[in-house]
Structures are given as structure tokens and as C-alpha cells.
Design goal:
The protein is α+β, with helices and mostly antiparallel strands. The chain has helices at 32-44, 49-64, and strands spanning 3-8, 11-16, 19-20. The protein has two helices and three strands; from the N terminus they run βββαα. Helix 1 (32-44) crosses helix 2 (49-64). The protein starts with a strand and ends with a helix.
Length: 66
Amino acid sequence: MQCIATHDRGVESLSWVGITMSKENITFRLDGEKRAALDALAAGMDRDRSYLINEAITLYLEMHQW
């Protein structure tokens, strides 16, 4: 299965071969420098912070789930 992250009208979705996954909130701590860097990348890509975090987690899972 392949995970596909999509962004449409401010809503991010993770899909596994066309099946949309439900969203859940998660809270974690992040130092200020990393948050600023993440926000700068998001602004440069015209995306929001949530999109980049989801992309990073998707890539991490693809690398480590085998």
C-alpha cells in the first residue's frame, strides 16, 4: 500500500490507496528554533505547518516500517 498526502482547501488527508484516513489531534513539544524553521519552510512552500509535519511523519514511517 502507498500512503498519499493531499491538501485541498485547507484540509490535509492521508490516504492509503484511495481510502481516506480519519484525523486525530496529537500534541508534542518542539523547541522554538525547530518551530521557526518549520514555519519558514511552510511559508516558502505555501503550505501550513500541519502539512509539513504530516509529510515528515509519512516519510519517516515509509523508511522505518518494513
